[in-house]
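Researcher: Structure prediction, please.
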Amino acid sequence: MASLPEPIIALISALGKLPGIGPRSAERLALHLVQSDIDEVQQLAQALVAARERIRTCSICGALTEEDAVRVLRQLPSAMPL
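Model: Predicted structure follows.
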């Protein structure tokens, strides 16, 4: 890996931190991404950032949601505490 440019090495390192991605998979993904169409890479980057910014864990049930409490839980009868 020493013969690769620093930006690729940094990308491999970042991808390798993802669960289930080992060093070889991280290298394959990095090489694929740097050779991909720039529009596809930007779309992936925007999707990652949007998901991280907008998705949170429901404070009631722990599900992934864009809202503080999952819509179904907020629609429960008011007699049931949230």
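Model: The mean pLDDT is 88.
Researcher: Thanks, that helps.
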